[in-house]
Amino acid sequence: MHERCSSCQTKYKMEPSFFYGAMYVSYAVGVAIAVAVFIISSVIIDASLPKTFIAIVLTLVLLLPVIIRLSRNIWINLFVSFHPEASVNQTR
Fold first, then answer.
1. Segment 50-55 long-range contacts (CB within 8 Å, at least 24 positions apart)
2. Cα-Cα-Cα-Cα dihedral of 14, 20, 25, 26, to 10°?
3. Mutual orientation of helices 21-38 and 49-62 as an angle, nearest 10°?
4. Fewer CB within 10 Å, N- or C-terminus of the chain?
């Protein structure tokens, strides 16, 4: 992660434990992805239970960086509002 936002210069490290809440968001995003992969592999593709489990694990491992960034972005957007017009004025 970058130290600051390139548009509005918001500092990403607000306090020492601010992003602990992102772990809960990450769990929810991971469960949603796992359920989607389960439905796709088990119901649509009609794979066996061990193959479905392997598909879920591989998908979650491969998408781990995306899940982490997405959960941090969701968590920070719950508390910090972004105003694009303000960031345009700062860059001029």
1. none
2. 110
3. 140
4. C
pLDDT at 59 over 50: yes
- Could you give the CA distance from residue 28 to residue 33 in angstroms, rounded to a whole number? 9
Q: Coil, strand or helix: which one is 42?
A: helix
Task: Note the pLDDT tens digit of each residue in 35-56.
Answer: 999 999 999 999 999 999 999 9
Looking at residue 72, its pLDDT comes to 87
Which pTM does this prediction carry? Answer: 0.74
Closest among 7, 57, 5, 2 to 33, alpha carbons compared:
57
CA angle 88, 75, 70 (to 5 degrees): 80
Residue count of the chain, please give it. Answer: 92
Rounded Cα–Cα distance for residues 57 and 34 (Å): 8
